[in-house]
Design brief:
This protein has about 300 residues and is an alpha/beta fold. It has nine helices and eleven strands. It starts with a helix and ends with a helix. Keywords: Hydrolase, Signal.
């Protein structure tokens, strides 16, 4: 009898914290059918209008999935805390390419990849905006998020759309409430201005050998290599935000590598508090958390 009661209680707990999942096609581009998984709180009400995190997964523009286990876990966390979580697919334009996305991939190809990733992200955001009532989303509270390659594409969409596309005006109605970047970077930090600067969360390791923490070549390619291209990582981005008086939360790991692109599940409660205060309630908070990799490993 006790076992039966326990099973019933566990089933009730699971139902209480589970979420609804719906998949939508937001664009078809050539052979790519681009989809998004929309996770909503199970007990969402018909007239609810909730904040949303629009997430772009990593994978070097050649792999990864919107349904990675970590992405799913993050979406579930968001729904348990009053958000809608959306994980998107996008064109993996380096998939199957022998030169990958490193130093043998030319600067011109990299610029093309960033541009198209930004377009895909903006098209996903546009779908969310145009279907906000059906999705029960507050369009003034769209938070842009991404990891590694996804962070690069997302940051390019938020801050550099005018650089990458001639018809950027068609996205001008999209206003993001904030940014959440894990090991991301921009091609030019000077595209962050007083008019587009928004509260930003950034996680990065100072010894990341793929996406620089500071100002350095992508993948630390040498100048004579085809893929030599300077990127501006989390340090110059947060310095720019500081200069503009904009909120930021920088989690810097001294000696940390590209593993900082992983979703920091043990710190989500702290990040959610920052997001609620700055991105949803307009408080100005500038925080830099500095730890060392050696301490993390103990």
């Amino acid at each position: 009898m006790k076992q039966l009661i326990l099973i019933v209680l566990l089933m009730f707990a699971f139902q209480s914290f589970s979420q609804d999942l719906e998949t939508y096609t937001y664009a078809i581009k050539g052979k790519d059918t681009l989809k998004m998984d929309v996770y909503s709180p199970k007990r969402i009400k018909k007239k609810d209008s909730l904040p949303v995190v629009l997430w772009m997964h990593g994978g070097g523009f050649s792999g990864g999935s919107r349904a990675n286990p970590d992405e799913v876990r993050l979406m579930e966390y968001l729904t348990e805390n009053g958000f809608i979580g959306i994980s998107i697919s996008y064109r993996l334009l380096r998939k199957g390419k022998p030169t990958g996305f490193g130093c043998e991939c030319t600067k011109e190809e990299k610029r093309f990849i960033f541009a198209n990733a930004a377009i895909d992200y903006l098209d996903a955001a546009n779908y969310v905006f145009n279907n906000a009532k059906q999705l029960k989303i507050d369009t003034s509270k769209i938070i842009a998020g991404g990891s590694s390659a996804g962070a690069e594409g997302m940051l390019s969409a938020v801050f550099m759309k005018d650089y990458f596309m001639a018809d950027a005006a068609r996205y001008q109605h999209l206003k993001f409430a904030g940014v959440w970047s894990l090991a991301g970077a921009l091609m030019d930090v000077n595209y962050i201005t007083k008019t587009n600067a928004i509260p930003t969360v950034m996680f990065h390791g100072t010894a990341d050998n793929l996406v620089p923490f500071g100002i350095a070549p992508h993948h630390f390619c040498k100048m004579q290599q085809p893929g030599y291209m300077i990127l501006y990582g989390s340090k110059p981005i947060t310095e720019k935000l500081d200069e503009l008086g904009t909120s930021y939360y920088l989690h810097k790991v001294i000696g940390g590598g590209h593993e900082l692109s992983s979703i920091p599940f043990d710190q989500l409660d702290t990040l959610l508090e920052f997001i609620n205060k700055t991105m949803l309630n307009s408080e100005v908070i500038q925080t830099e958390k500095i730890i060392t990799k050696s301490i993390l490993q103990k």
